[in-house]
Batch of 2 targets.
Target 1
Amino acid sequence: MLRFALTLLLFTLAFGVLSSSPVFSDLILAKVDRRIDLTSQIVRITTSLKVENAGSNPISEILLSFPENQAKHLAYLTATLNEGKGKGKASSGAGLPTEVVIPKDVPDSLTFYSVSLHKGLGKGESLLLDVLAVFTHALEPFPEKISQADIQLLLFQDTAHFLSPYKVMVQSVAVKLPEARVESYTKLEGTKLSGSELKYGPFHNIPPFSYLPIIIHFENNQPFAVAEELVREIEISHWGNVQVTEHYNLFHGGAKSKGEFSRLDYQARPYVRGASAFRRLVARLPPRAHSVYYRDEIGNISTSSLWGDSKKTELEIEPRYPLFGGWRTAFTIGYGLPLRDFLFESDGKRFLNFSFGSPINELVIDTLIVKVVLPEGSKDISASVPFPVKQWQETKFSHLDLVGRPVVVLEKNNVVPEHNEHFQVYYKFNSLSMLTEPLMLIFGFFFLFVACIVYMHADLSISKSSASYLAKVQWEEVQATVQQIHNIISHCLTAHDKLEASLRDLSRTGDVQACKATRKSVDSLLKGVSKDLKPLVTFLQSSPQAAHILPKVEELIAKERDLQERLMAKHTTVVDCYEKKLGGREIENRIASNQQKITSLRQEVDDLMEFIDEI
Ligand SMILES: *[C@@H]1O[C@H](CO)[C@@H](O)[C@H](O)[C@H]1NC(C)=O
Ligand SMILES: *[C@@H]1O[C@H](CO)[C@@H](O)[C@H](O)[C@H]1NC(C)=O
């Protein structure tokens, strides 16, 4: 506090010397009303001045002065002529041109802005001027560090007397504070605090460069959201879309958080939630915004909500954790907008008309970089911004680009919501260029088709072989079927062997019953087998691939059947003979003719089996 008081004292001394300087004495300020708004992290001072020309020469510029500690925080300054009748009327017309000037014989510690009047102010004439000055980082947290449970207290310092190179006849100040506690404030004669409004003055006949320090210490728990850097990329696509992507690097610019953060305390005890911590931010997007997303380094965040009407779209975003003093977070929001709302034509040029600043409410941006990505092939590019910015051009490449897209880059420090004015980027564009990419695609596909055709022709064997492949598959099926038939027949032959064996056993043991039992089991086995054969043969008959093999298979099956019948007959005869107890010779005579046939048939069947096994 002592430090401030000393600085202020020095100011007063310095200006005291200057007060007799004649340079500025032609103008007098008949009335000055100042309103200081301290309800957010951004300080806004609105001053209405009644300026009178008391000299004899017309005057075309008015000087505004700011002490060093304010000048370095000044983000935005605009002066407008108030042509309305009396107070409460809005200022009309655009802001008057203002620029920094360095008049002679003034201390370095003051910064002067010159407001140029369109029309000189003649002798004895007066005008009303409204000045809005917006400051960032002008509220000093005091104490600088607070714990999770503390409220945030801030210091604001200014002068009760309007600091001006001109004499002021009558003036007053009203300070609007947040609806919260006022810790202390400088008390001067006539100072009044009513509710959240603090009034100083009126003061009369103040000499030039008069400085009467005031300090206000008050509670303010508004979110001190400061974007250290914000990169806004606005990409124009002539196919109907403007894509906006905003990369935020945000921190809480209020009183630093000290001690350890306890999430338990934070969640369980509302009173230690950190009154100044902020949990959510609201971005006001243009109407008809679509495909809105919000993500951080980890991924998309779903705890954002979106609502809107025909005038605006509001996106409420909630970082993953509440932000306490000094904490940071980085995230990206993106959205698409209809091109026709922002792209226009005049004098054969197209131009984008877009708002400059961030859509987030009451955000302070230390460094704002706006990149406008124009369609490939844009020419004669120029930008028009209503305030000074650094400007340059880059090139961006994305898929299908041949020479890259021109990018207009605008950079500005210390940006406040007042900078959300419209800027324009003008460029010339040949509509035919728009066809470049589709043509590239068309040619791309064309060449792809040509390549396919060439490929198909060059490699016709593929299509042939695919037919032959089919044939191969069919042939394999035929082979498999034939193999199955082969297996079945060999089962049958094994059964035949069993029958023969049972007859040999019979001749040795004379056990008729055992022989009959074997016969029975072989009978049923052969019956089942003939059922299995049927579908296999049907398949071969329907398959053209099997044409050459089918006769042999059918012959094999017929021969085996014949062989089977003869074997059965032989078996029946032999068993009969045994039951009738006939002699061995007698039996041999009875089966002799059949036995010959059986032997030759067996030979034929074996040959056929060998043949079909080899296909
Ligand atoms: C996030 O969501 C947007 C829109 O839904 C989508 O375009 C983007 O690819 C998503 N990003 C991630 C990392 O999931
Ligand atoms: C840009 O848009 C704003 C808001 O719609 C409008 O007021 C302004 O006149 C436009 N500027 C130009 C140059 O068209």
Note: Residues 291, 293, 295, 299-300 surround 2-acetamido-2-deoxy-beta-D-glucopyranose (ligand 1) (CB under 6 Å).
Target 2
Amino acid sequence: MSVRENLLRVRGEIPEGVELVAVSKFHPAEMIEEAYEAGQRCFGESRVQELVEKVKALPSDIRWHFIGHLQTNKVKQLIGKVALIESVDSEKLLNLIDAESRKTGVVTRVLMQVHVAMEETKFGFYPEELLEYFREKKFESLTNTHICGVMGMASNTDDLDRVRGDFHKIATIYRSIANDPSLGLRGFDMLSMGMSGDWQIAVEEGANIVRIGSAIFGARQY
Ligand SMILES: *Cc1c(COP(=O)(O)O)cnc(C)c1O
């Protein structure tokens, strides 16, 4: 199957109102072009250097989402180049994104990554930490960053009940923030969860952004 065929099939399966991020990390620009030709405009990358090079090489109307762990010393390179940083996993990183965005004179849109999976290696705020961040209204100190919602991943397991449980937890955290009028949040309406192997479950649990790589581009060569 070609990238085009995969993309059209996946897009045909995803319900309306759910945004597809085509995760193109580790794949060459030519494959992104193929998806672009088939109408895809939103792509996800997980490494800063790779993203910066692809931004230079590919059409300017692509909306890039950064979805990987972002090291603080690389924040500067991303600012102004991405439509959304989905993987904000610490307050320190968020404040740095804000400071760099202010210097550059742009507003950066971000999602807060929440950690519910059983793997210890996954990054993100623990649920209680994230809820506290909002409860204490720490976001009010941000001047050039717009927090648009929450991103999360399920445990890497064949146990689909566990996967559903993880997505349910993430969605519950998201909704408890989004539906709290006392926070006075505006434009907090994005819930990014689900990858090639589990996006259907994520959508059933309320995701409105899915991040799909291998089902479109095939296996990655690391
Ligand atoms: C790589 C990656 C994906 C895509 O994974 P696939 O299984 O290839 O669909 C989604 N989200 C994040 C955060 C990733 O790093």
Note: The mean pLDDT is 96.
